[in-house]
Hints:
alpha/beta, 5-stranded parallel beta sheet, 5 strands, 23% strand
Amino acid sequence: MTWRILAAGKPALDYAKKGIAEYLKRLSRGAKVELVYLKAGASEAVSADLLARSEGTFRIALDERGKDWTTDEFVKKVNVWEMDPGIKTVSLLIGASDGHSAELRAKADAIWALSPLTLQHELALVVLLEQLYRAYTIKRGEPYHR
C-alpha cells in the first residue's frame, strides 16, 4: 500500500523541513510514502485540487473537526487498510490555511484530527509523518513507540 500525502504549500520553516526529511527517511525502511506539495491558495481551489489528485484513492482529510484517533486506533486502521484489496493508495489531505471545503470533507473516506488544536500546516505535516512512523514501528515490534 502507498501513502500519498498531499499538502498545500511547501514548508518554509527550517525546523519543519528538517523534521519532514527525517521522518521520510525513517519511513523509507517500512512504508511507501509519497509527498506532493500543491500550490497554496484559497480553500475552494486547494480542496478542488486535492480532490482531483486523490481521485480513486482512499481519502483521509486532516481536519480539526475529525475523529481524534489514538495511536493504537490508528495502527488498527492501518492494518485493516493494508489488508483491504480495494485500497492501493491512502491519500492524506492537508488543505489550505483556511481549511477544507465542505465538498472535500463530504467526499473523504475519513476525517482525522491530529489534535483538537488548529495546527500550522508545516507542523501538522511533521506530526502526521511522526505518527505514520510510530505506527510502523509498532507494527514491526520496535521500541520507538514506548
